[in-house]
Structure formats: structure tokens, C-alpha cells
Amino acid sequence: MLKKEAFIGAIDQGTTSTRFIIYDQSYQVIGSHQMEFTQFFPQAGWVEHNPVEILESVRVCMSKAIDKATEDGHNLDSGLKAIGVTNQRETTVVWSKSTGLPLYNAIVWMDVRTSSICRRLEEQFPGGKYHFLETCGLPISTYFSAVKLLWLLENVDSVKRAVESGDALFGTIDTWLIWNLTGGSHSVDPTQNTVTGLHVTDVSNASRTMLMNLKTLDWDTPTLETLGIPSEILPKIVSNSEIIGNVAVGWPTAGVPIAGCLGDQHAAMVGQACRKGEAKSTYGTGAFILLNTGEEIIKSNHGLLSTIAYKLGPNAPTNYALEGSIAIAGAAVQWLRDSLGIIQTAPEIEDLANKVDNTGGIYFVPAFNGLFAPWWKDDARGVLVGITRFTNRSHIARAVLESICFQANDVLDSMHKDSKEKAGVTYEDFLLRVDGGASANNLLMQIQADLLGSPVIRPGDIETTALGAAYAAGLAVGVWTEDEIFSTVQLEAKATTFYPKLEEEQRKKKVESWYKAVTRSFELANLSL
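and the corresponding C-alpha cells:
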């Protein structure tokens, strides 16, 4: 064990912002910095990011977090032992191997431009939407990276040319970051004149592409051949906790090993110490609920995904999960702020919603880009139903918060059904741990407990995504042991528990009304402008 001045850094590259957080050996934050970056909406339903801007945001956050820690007397020159990376999943980048420049903006996970490709694939294959489910655990959906890559291959000439000439590299955001952090196209081995940037991804991010075989943990050759995707452009797949490579000269953390990599929701699973039979819900731009199913792949009959939970080392066992993904959670609050001007800052929604005891009978379904689990309706669009002259700003604010919790409740209900059917786990066996920025909203968490009819537990540190990435990196370099990072003592020490207060009969009525509202959102994507 390393005793003194052992620090671990975590890059947390999210959908709307980037952070770099530095932890000491007692899991305490000694320096951090966060910054938002630009969201591009070229057309209705399209969402893009500038990969170069994301890269620069990482550089700035690293530099400023290190400055803060150094100013407080911490010696990071010798003390920073490793860096973990966690990232928004499914978001797709293709770039030039020779220039290092992206060939198109990153297509974000919630983007729905690929709906026509999905329909085509569903009609083309005998299994329809579920043709690849046995292999990758995922339905054909706009959500996943493979169809975004197909869109780029079919619609962007520079991507097509680069693939044909052997100059294209594909990756999710973790791959883009690691390739650049380890040298990219600008760090050349003088003895062999070869690029030293590492083209890798991890099992959790790879599991979200539709291209990885869940059992072999490698790219699935039949799937690649079926979709016409060349294997040469794909990164190498590694575990979540191992030394991948060192940060290149020119970065604030040059020489430090990158030793952990996980998609954000998988990192939160580790940060929340979720072992088999334990579930967590992360509330960010979207909301994501995962249940660790241990070393068993459970296929859902209720609209959930089978995916990787984590694999903490090349020779470690693979933990799998059932997942329900919600496209719009905190993004609905941002919509109130940025598009409607009902609030000026995101935290204001709690006070505004608390001015009323209920929504006045209105229900908001934030299907801005369709609905994910358990509905899988990419033709759904947002609706606000039940409006009367009595409706005011506070009712709308409360309905937005309730919509986040109703969606999570839908997923958890499906999760309970699948687990009971497949694993013999009953409703009472579930312990829901919550995290993510929006979980700081006490009203939101109380509404969640009320709609679930069971307690919700929030840890003292709600930024468990970054913590999970740090855990994975620290584990790989010997700063922590697995027993230490999966100890729940530190999680429970400062935890807040929200107990349900809503009567069961009232809860059931509200859920029934929500289901009616959800059905009103279906098949609205092609309404005339």
C-alpha cells in the first residue's frame, strides 16, 4: 500500500459539462474544476458536440484542479499516482488518424437522426428491433453508437473517404480522450515513426455500441459483417481497471498513468459499491438505473437492456447488469431555464415547485427525443397534459420534477418484474441508491420515494461517477484494494434516507394517470410545422 501523498485524478466527461476531480487516499476531494461546453442542435432531434472543444475542456479542468490542490499544499508532482476516465456513453466520434482532427461533430447519445436507419434495419432482419439482442443485449435504437456510425458512413463524404483510405478511427468519447491524452497524431516514436496515441475503449463503453459480444467481450465479427462496419476502425477493448498508458507531454498531468476507464453509469455503479442484487439511479442530463446481476446475463422481458456492470481488471470476473435509460431528466430542468425562462438557475426549481402541494392535475412527459426504457418509442415527443386556467409556473415546475421520478419508477417497475422472474429477487430486496447532480434536490428525492413506495438513499458524496473512475484507477495501481472500495461504511456515514409519505392508493392513481399521459406522447414526431 502507498502510505503518503497518494492521489488519484478522475476525468468526468459528461453530456453538458466536463470535470476533473482529485481525491486523496481517504476518498476526499482535494481539488476540482468543472466547465460547461457548447450544445449544438442543427435540426429538430439532432444533438452534437465539438470534440475539440471537449478536449480543451478536459485540459482546462485538469490545469485548474491541479492549481487548486497545489495552492492548498498538496504535492501532485510525486503524489498523483493515476487517472481514471469516465464519460458520456454512446456519443460517437470519427477522426483522422493522420491529422488528429474529427471528421464531423460528435453525434450525442440522445440524437435521433438515425431513426430511418433503425426502421430500415428492423425491416431488413428477421428479428426486427431485437435482431442483435442475443449477442449484444441491446435493441436496434437511435441510442446506440453503431447506427450513429452508419449514419456518418452514409452521409459524410470525409468519413467515407477516410475509412476507404485507412485513415479513420472510430470511438466513443473515452476513446477520443485517451487517444489524445496518450499522444494522438502529434506524438511520434522517433525510432519507428509511428503514432503513439492509444486507440482503446473499455468493456462498458464497448457494450453500448451494439457491436460487442457480451459473452466474449470482443467485437462481434458477424455483427460487423452484417452492418458493413470495418473492424480496422474500431479500438482495442480493455477492462475497467488496468494501466492503459501514460499521459503524453503537453498535458498538465504528463507521465501519469491512465489506469481506469468506465462509461459514466458503470462508474457510478462502482462509486456506489453496487454488488450483485444492488441498484443505483443516477440523475444527470438523463437518468440511468442499473441493477447488478452478478456474473449472469439476464435478458429482459420488460423493455430493459442487458449490459456490462464492470470488470475490475483483465483477469477479474465480469459483472453484468440490467439497465433502464431515461433520455431526459435534468435536461428538462435546463429546458425550463434556457428555453422557457421559467427559472433562472437550475436549483431554483425546488423552491418554485415547493410553492404548491401538487401539480394541479397536470402531467409532463419530456419525450423531446423519443422515449427510452421501457417504452422504446423514438416517435414520441413531449407533452404537457391536464392544463387549466388554474395551472401556474409552480405546477409546471413540480410536474417537471415528477416526470423525472415517474420515468425512473417505470424502469424500476420493469426491473422488479424481470428480477423476480429471472433471478428470484423480490421487490423488497431492492435498495435504491441515488447520485448525480439532480439528486441534490431534496424535493425530487422525496417525490421519488413517494412514487416508488420505498426508501431512497443518497450518499454524502453524490458525485459517485467521478469517484467510481478514481476507484478503478486507484485499484489498478495499488492505492486501494477491492475490499476497501466496496466498503459501504463511507457511503452510509453521511447518507440521507428519504422515506415515502404518499398513501398507497394515491400513489397508484398518480401512476395510472402518468401512463395515460405517456400514451399521449406516442407518434407525434411527424406533426406538421
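(Above: one complete record from the training split.) The two ends are 63 Å apart (CA to CA).
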